[in-house]
Amino acid sequence: MRQPQLSALFILACFFLMPFSAPGQLLGFSQESATAQKKLEAQFDAQLNAKNLDEWMKHMAAHPHHVGSPWGKQNAEFMAARFREWGFDTKIETFQVLFPTPKLRLLELLEPTSYRAGLEEPPVAGDAHSAQTDEMLPPYNCFSIDGDVTAELVFVNFGVPADYEELEKLGVDVKGKIVIARYYGSWRGIKPKVAAEKGAIGCIIYSDPREDGYFQGDVYPEGAFKNEYGVQRGSVLDMPLYPGDPLTPGYGAVEGAERLSREDAPTLTKIPVLPISYKDAQPLLAALSGQVAPPSWRGALPFTYHVGPGPAKVHLKLEFNWELKPAYNVIAKMEGSAYPDQWIIRGNHHDAWVHGANDPISGMVAVMEEARAVGELAKSGWRPKRTLVYCAWDAEEPALLGSTEWVEHHARELRQKAVVYINTDSNSRGFLDAGGSHTLEQFFNEVARDVKDPQTGMSVYERWRARELVEGRPEPKDFSLDALGSGSDYTPFIQHLGIASFSLGFGGEGRGGEYHTAHDTYEHYTRFKDPGFQYGITLAQVAGRLSLRLAEADVLPFEFGQFTETVSTYAEEVMKMAGQLREQTEKENRLIREGLYAAAADPTKTFVVPAPKPEVPYFNFAPLQNALSSLKKSAGAFEEVRKKASLNTEQQTALNQLLQTIEQQLTRNQGLPRRPWYRHHIYAPGFYTGYGVKTLPGVREAIEERKFTEAQEQIGILSGVLSGFAQQIDKGTAILQQARAVDSANGPE
Amino acid sequence: MRQPQLSALFILACFFLMPFSAPGQLLGFSQESATAQKKLEAQFDAQLNAKNLDEWMKHMAAHPHHVGSPWGKQNAEFMAARFREWGFDTKIETFQVLFPTPKLRLLELLEPTSYRAGLEEPPVAGDAHSAQTDEMLPPYNCFSIDGDVTAELVFVNFGVPADYEELEKLGVDVKGKIVIARYYGSWRGIKPKVAAEKGAIGCIIYSDPREDGYFQGDVYPEGAFKNEYGVQRGSVLDMPLYPGDPLTPGYGAVEGAERLSREDAPTLTKIPVLPISYKDAQPLLAALSGQVAPPSWRGALPFTYHVGPGPAKVHLKLEFNWELKPAYNVIAKMEGSAYPDQWIIRGNHHDAWVHGANDPISGMVAVMEEARAVGELAKSGWRPKRTLVYCAWDAEEPALLGSTEWVEHHARELRQKAVVYINTDSNSRGFLDAGGSHTLEQFFNEVARDVKDPQTGMSVYERWRARELVEGRPEPKDFSLDALGSGSDYTPFIQHLGIASFSLGFGGEGRGGEYHTAHDTYEHYTRFKDPGFQYGITLAQVAGRLSLRLAEADVLPFEFGQFTETVSTYAEEVMKMAGQLREQTEKENRLIREGLYAAAADPTKTFVVPAPKPEVPYFNFAPLQNALSSLKKSAGAFEEVRKKASLNTEQQTALNQLLQTIEQQLTRNQGLPRRPWYRHHIYAPGFYTGYGVKTLPGVREAIEERKFTEAQEQIGILSGVLSGFAQQIDKGTAILQQARAVDSANGPE
After folding, report:
1. What was the ipTM of the complex prediction?
2. The pLDDT value given to residue B187
């Protein structure tokens, strides 16, 4: 073989790739492009100014700005004006969404004593915003149905299925009762959902000081935590079924769209539900007798927790204004110079429950600063190769309404054009916290290693790693992306359409109990969350790099080795879980059948021995294991050949087009059992956890819910999905091999 | 070989042993003796009457009866009269012991607000006994020194060494401060001991409602748990150094005995210490600021727990009457017909902090009913083969004074005559709970399988097993005896003299917060602890069988296989612990040296990176492993030959004499490092746990306390002790082999 002319090769391989980046290199960038990119990022960083974040938060969190409020509209218009100033093609896309607000809220204890719940958050000294009570929505759970119920009370701990199993053992049935559950332990919407499944007729949710009140730290205004009046508002829509407008499932809630009647909307609660403070919960809980609650159920209130039922008897009456309200999504585009039809989408919501300084304005102002900095770069002549889309979602709080309706409405276009969606929401001082598609984990790591933590000067990766080690976890190979469930606006992108997504923020040192209360104000944020907005800037640096690198990469930086490893871990977890469930079921059935439960129980207390459960069969996991084995080969082959391939423009375009939609191969149109809206087969929010992710959800939840026939079917379906994904990778490998063949013809390896 | 005449063999083998008992047989008994024994036990059971327990408790707990009180003396005399009526040779042995009582108790908060602690337990509605405040000792910690100190306050959680490591990380030093610790987490005496080691000048101990107040259940008088006024009294003598009279270490505190001056008594506290209620603790704790206490430190009071120091400043002033008081031990003997110099000792204390219905009268009345039933058997002509000694100890509460002085005073005789000591103390409804010498574990199991649980009708063993399985522990092979540490009157017997011991009781279903308060009354006991005294009778059945079988056995039922297995488990634990400490030290040192602790810490909070600790060397455990290997062979050989041996009277006597003192081979006169009073090398109370046992204490504590040279020395010493023990077993085997040789000469195996 002849010795090639290096210079000639360089000219030829103008799109030479080094996907595994050596020092100074970046995944998806040639050496040359990487150098340019680093320079661009330095220019971007130089633009970022914490004062802007401060000023915008002060403005946008100046008044309550829930869906349909004057200040919400003002904020949308304010942001649209800014995006326009910064050079973006900006519009406000409005959807008409169902947004119930309280008309009547009544909660009273009737027996054995009487108490009428205050249900209000009075102003707090030193926080002028907290005094704007006239502009606020009072505490409520959004999408509770109307109701007027009176019944004995039962304390159900967090109100998750395991708690009801415990209650059954204690001989307590919630049928016809009103339950009181404490916040945490699950997403709040699970609590009334399970309560209704168990026959309860009403649900109260309260904030125990154990979770985010005085047990955790000093309370507002002395400290950051929830005081006796604080109430967590929040949605209780059955989002694990589908998020977004309950009346327009699967399509955009535009003006004039066909709508379900409210009676037919399956995601509204089945029973009335109301959130209360611990000041209001205290007389109710203290009036319960019956058995003492199990140790792990007891909170931090100063009395003995009993489960009831009764003698506490309560009356709960709720009425709502069932109105359509406009949701204003601000969409700001900067068209790509090379690939205008490849969109990098960056979003955060702008609506809040009250002032929302932390949730969501702390994230929103970082997005704005990123956009402003990009605008500045553009003013100096630069243009992104791919289209950048900055989004400020409305109506996230009630149920991801703004983003979901937008995604549903633009589904066809997004399937073709959306490459990646990058989400943020609340942000505060501390450690990088990020979830996302594992096809982008390697790419994400390069960014996490390139951005400095403002408090220590080390990289945000290194600081995260220090905490991992201090908390006793093993030496990490890389920053591990969490799997995405739900809880913010990435949900429709990744779960419904299969668009590769990230969701990230900082936190862990800026704690508090202000979430969804009237105390999430500018005062609270700048005292306790991120004084000086240093982490707002750091967030802009991380998310800005993610956006800019995705916009500029020669070849989209997807990688399949870490994805395969991660999914293999999930598969091992599921197999282990099946084994444990089998063992645990056998053990429990033995305790029941041999009378051991009865023998160990205190005969002076009620203890109902549960019925034995069907034994857990052995599943055939071989199809999944074989699919993962193929996937590993495909991922390996792709990386192997990618390292050596030089692509011409046509090949690069073909590869980019293939990669752009590859995450969509992990979805199926049929979706998951009983909830077709959720199409991703690797990640989903749990049917009984709400926000919390269930990986390999079809298989995992079938086993957990003891649907054993379905579990075996889902193993087959998941295996098919993974095989299809591997085939798509193989197509990418074929493109790379073509390039390599050309390359080889021109010189030695 | 000739076919033997079975009948001839039977006559010859009149003392034939079946040590591993087949059905209907008992360890240490011939078939014939076992049958007689079972009959005797049925007669014993038939005597037991719950009404006696009720009546005696009502009488003995009618007034406060602490050391030196009129009712304490009355109780001793009452019991002595009863034992005499029942046919026992009874005397009251009196010792003169140091027993300080409060002269002045003052605790006040001086800054930032002022509060004077009430330090009283007012009468409780419905409990007439609680109104006898004039007769009570007010709440105090016995053997606190006098003191008058004023300083800033620091909250130290349980006040154990690990808590001070945590405080150091938080940058908090207790030097010159007064500490406030909560009860539990260690024996109370550890709290002022460690506080003084760390430089504190005063110590307050309070009862957090988390541990035995409203967090656990309804409070007295509605429920059994500690109300806001309840204070746990109790000794704070440095008992891990030596228990008993602090002025007469190692010898009896008889009238006229030489005594240390109080200044030279090493077991008194180094700083003043006072116990308080949570009503009195609340203003003090609430006045602390500084860092928020770590999550596991927080109790159930309704505020944020801070560690301080200050701004809370407190004044603690304590003065005591330092007087000698008479301790009345009631000693009742029934001489053995065959082996009068082999004593089976059965004991319980009779003194209380206040009324002591549960602690100790619930156990004391069971002892009395056992003795009464034995007396009834004796009236019908029966006599025990070995001497039965029933003891009612005085002055257990201040520091095991009565039993310790008696044991020290009679040490020479006890070393020769005492076979086994069987202790009880508090008793309530629930599950058998027993610790003891593992040389008697197999014997104990036969008893636990023969006594019925009064609530379920199954054996107390079976009910215990049911709970083991329900709580997720593995299928037990046998009832596992806990290792004995300290905390009741078995301590001088087993720890100082090496007399094989048991300590047992029932509990787990009769819970409450009355321990050492003015609420441990007849009213409380009969409502919440053991209504109807069913478990008092069951305790008498278990302890009565232990006594009677030991008194009647043909050969003492010691067995060494389970002992060897148990000690091997301890050795494995210690080896594992050494490995874990090594690994943990390396890990922690790495976090320190690589700056990871500093990197992960919140820079807005004080965090002092600790100094690296010396690395843990590898120890040579081979001597211990070899000793255990020999022990296993010796134990196996003994059992092997015992199964087949027939002993003549002389051989039986020789074997009994050997077995009677064999546990003493586990002691050394030099005792444990820095505390020669503790001589047993398998069991000891922990130097920094107080009551809690440390098995293989010489080795284990040296490693835990990072005295690595000493650890290696102690491995050698322990190995020597175990080898000596094995040699003693071999002597027993030789006796059995003699017998077997005779037997073999008379017929085939």
Report:
1. 0.93
2. 95
Residue B107 β-bridge partners: B316
Amino acid identity for residue A440 in this structure = L
In the DSSP assignment, the letter for residue B251 is: S
Are the beta carbons of B623 and B714 closer than 8 angstroms?
no
Q: How far apart are CA B39 and CA B382, in angstroms?
A: 12
Using one digit for the tens of pLDDT, what is the confidence trace for B62-103?
999 999 999 999 999 999 999 999 999 999 999 999 999 999
The mean of the pLDDT values for chain A is 95
pLDDT tens by residue, B487-542 = 999 999 999 999 999 999 999 999 899 999 999 999 999 999 999 999 999 999 99
Q: Quick check: do B101-322 and B561-745 share a fold?
A: no
Q: Which residue of A has its CA nearest to B464?
A: A600
DSSP code per residue over B498-552: --EEEEEEEEESS--S-TTSTT-SHHHIIIII-GGGHHHHHHHHHHHHHHHHHHH
Tokens of B455: 């609530």
C-alpha–C-alpha distance, residues A349 and A369, integer Å: 15
**CA nearest B511 in A: which residue?**
A602
Position B7 pLDDT exceeds 60: no
Q: How far is the C-alpha of B443 from the C-alpha of B448, rounded, in Å? A: 9
Using only C-alpha atoms, chain B has a radius of gyration, in whole angstroms, of 27
Instruction: State how far the Cα of B25 lies from the Cα of B32, in Å rounded to an integer.
Output: 9
Q: What fold is seen in the domain A561-746?
A: Transcription Elongation Factor S-II; Chain A (1.20.930)
Residues of A with CB under 8 A from a CB of B: 209, 214-219, 223, 225, 292, 298, 300-304, 430, 455-456, 458, 462-463, 466-467, 469-472, 509, 587, 590-591, 595-597, 599-600, 602-604
Binary contact (B463, A298; C-beta < 8 A): no
Domain B101-322 has what CATH class? Answer: alpha beta
> What architecture (CATH level 2) is domain B561-745?
Up-down Bundle (1.20)
Residue A297 per-residue DSSP state: G
- Cα B313–chain centre separation: 37
Q: Where are the domains of chain A?
A: 48-98+325-552, 101-322, 561-746
- What is the CB neighbour count within 10 angstroms for residue A171? 13
Give the pLDDT confidence score for residue A511 in this predicted structure.
Answer: 87
Strand partners, A115: A109
Task: List Cβ neighbours of A724 (8 Å cut-off, separation of 6 or more).
Answer: A665
Mutate to test the interface with A, among B469, B590, B607 (most CBs of A within 10 A): B469
What burial class does residue A622 get, using C-beta atoms within 10 Å of its C-beta: 0-12 exposed, 13-18 middle, 19+ buried?
exposed
Q: Which of A465, A392, A324 is nearest to A93 (CA)?
A: A392
Please tell me whether the overall predicted TM-score, pTM, comes out greater than 0.90 for this model: yes
d(CA A608, CA A628): 44
Which candidate from A214, A298, A466 shows the least CB-CB separation from B596? Answer: A466
Cβ atoms of A627 and A526 within 8 Å: the answer is: no
CB environment B438-449: b (16+ within 10 A), e (fewer): bbbbbbbbbbbe
Handedness of CA A200, A706, A599, B543 (dihedral sign): negative
- The verdict on domain A48-98+325-552 having CATH code 2.102.10.10 is no
CA distance A541 to A450: 9
Per residue, the 3-state secondary structure of A327-354, as one string, reads EEEEEEEECCCCEEEEEEEEEEECCCCC
pLDDT in tens, B226-248: 999 999 999 999 999 999 999 99
CB A513 within 8 A of CB A226: yes
User: Regarding beta strands A418-423 and A500-508, do their DSSP bridges make them parallel or antiparallel, or are they unpaired?
Assistant: parallel
Fold of B38-98+325-447+483-552: Aminopeptidase (3.40.630)
